[in-house]
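Predict the structure of Sodium:proton antiporter.
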Amino acid sequence: MVVPFYTLVISSKAAKHRRVEQKCRNIGCFFVLAFLGLFPTASFAEEIIAATPLDLKNHFVGYLGIAITVLAYAIAMTEDLHQMSKAKPMVLGSALIWLAIFVFYSGEYGTAKNVAAVFQSNLTAYAELFLFITVSMTFLNAMTERGIFDALRIVLANRQYSYRQLFWITGVLAFLLSLVISSLTVGLLMGYIILVIGKNNPKFVGLAGLNAVVAANAGGTISPLGGISTFFVWQQNALHFTQFFALTIPCIVNFVVPATIMHFAVTNETPAFAKETPVLKRGSKRVIFIFILTFSMTVLSNVFLDMPAIAGMMLGLAILQFFAYYLTKSEKMSHFLIPETQETSDSNKGFDVFKCIAGVDWDTLLFFYGAMMIVGALSFLGYLDAMAHYLFTEINPTLANILIGLSSSSIDNGTLMFAVLNMHPSLSTGQWLLLTLTLGVGGSLLAIGSAPALHVLGLMKGNMEEGEGYTFTMHLRWMPAILLGFFASIVTLFFINGGQF
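Done. Here is the predicted structure for Sodium:proton antiporter.
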């Protein structure tokens, strides 16, 4: 009886004298809520409404939300055709869907405060992801600015490795780096190194680029620090940090199986490079130390203190900022003691962390904002609950998790994982491991299925001749080998952790 009375008080049926009725409605709500506060079972009427949103799957608002979602994703996935940033349609689409929901609830209830609470909840989840990726990319840009990765490229070139050796070295580096750096940034970094060391061999560039993409996705699946989907699982406490280690061997299998098949297609010739001397800027080694310290603090504070991951990351960013301040001030001081030469002027130009922050991939960050807010809207409309009922109740959860993983070959795995988490499925530890594995490595099946692949595609497009190097068609030709690695990793997971399903 309480909720209908409350709804009756806050509803507005008359179009005339709206301002007067609004004041009366506000006064009435105040006294009703004050009265309801005397009763412990009735004092949360507004929260009850917020907790039970209307089922709008078969309403015009729901149909509009689906139409906007499909259109936004279609435009984002065809970015290469129209050269429009993928973030634009996603941000606009999310804004339009939520606007429609707010308008509907304002007309139905006279207020949309409960909708605002849901919107802010999704925004909070995105804010943590935003800061986490921003800090991760800032460290990557800082190490790039200090010349660390350029020195790595020169070392690989000077060692006179064969193309086959470089194929495996770059793949293993991509796998290991993606344990602590977001796989999308690893794809861009390794793509740059492969492009430079293989500039005279387009076939090597294509195979090594594809291998790095598979390796980055596989390595990023082991660690919550290396992938968007794994970060979501960790953030929502579906799996603890140490539980991800169970995916180590399956992910190694996922990387090694297609790499072994591609190995025989890589020439065994040794490329000729001019000898170069790697030059590291002042403070580069200490930046690496701060980077390792930051991720160590993030993991240990989460495991032993239950501190959110972003708190440790922001602490590391603060340390990096103070170190940059010290480096800049000490370099200026040295100018008074040592006459400036061309060498010192090139290496002592200061270290501005904010330039590293400005260099993060804002298109990707805004894309994830749009994607996460769209998923949150579809969940509020009732579509995700219906999908969860079908996937995890009417069909086998194992089959459902494999199908979801296969679908990540064309839909971003971070978005899919966020959608699944919004379904709130009741899964065992083994099923969460399976879902994390299939979503993490399923994006390797097609070139449009993962952020590392999209980054490498964009890099190759501007620096390789048409039809050469790493392309969508080239990736598609090797898809059977990658699919074999996909199912081999699933079999390995069941063999090692079958008791947890």
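Residues 70 and 356 are 35 Å apart (CA to CA).
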